[in-house]
Amino acid sequence: MSEQRTLSIIKQDATARNVTGSINARFEQADLRIIAQKRICVTKEQAKKFYEIHREKAFYDSICEHMSSGPIVVQVLQGEDAVAKNREIMGATNPANAAIGTIRRDFGQSIEHNAVHGSDSEENAAIEIAFFFNSLELVG
Ligand code: CMP
User: Fold this and answer.
1) pLDDT per residue over 97-133, tens digit each?
2) Is 117 a catalytic residue?
3) To pair with 5 at 20 to 30 A between CA atoms, which of 73, 108, 117, 127?
C-alpha cells in the first residue's frame, strides 16, 4: 500500500444532475482526499486530446462530444492506493454492470453517461493530472 494521487472527472451528465457534492462525499467516505478541484468546460479538441488513447474506438467522437457538452469537475484524489480504490468505488464502466453502492451504479445512466472518470494506473494518473493541473494547484 502506498500514498497515491489519481485524476477524477465528474462528467457533464453528473454536473447537470447537480450531484457533484453527493459524489464527492463518496470519495471522502472512502478516505480519498480531494486535494485539487475545479469546475471547467473543455472544447471538443481538448477532450479529444485527453481521450487520445481511445482514438481508434467507435465511441471516441461521441465521448468527446459528451465531455465538451457542458461543465465538468476535474479533481485530484489522494490517499492509500488511490488509483485502485477510486476504481473500486466508481464501479464498472457500464453502470448496468456496476456493483451495488458504487458511484456509477448510483449516479450513471449509460456507458457513456457514466458520471465519473478515474485514471486506470499510477502512470496514467500522473499524465492525466498534469493535463489539467499545475503543481501549485495540488494542495495535499
Ligand atoms: P471513462 O472512464 O471516462 O473512459 C472512457 C470512456 O468511454 C468511458 O469512461 C465511457 O464513458 C466511454 N466508453 C467506454 N466504452 C464505451 C462503449 N462501448 N460505448 C460508449 N462509450 C464507451
Assistant:
1) 999 999 999 999 999 999 999 999 999 999 999 999 9
2) yes
3) 108
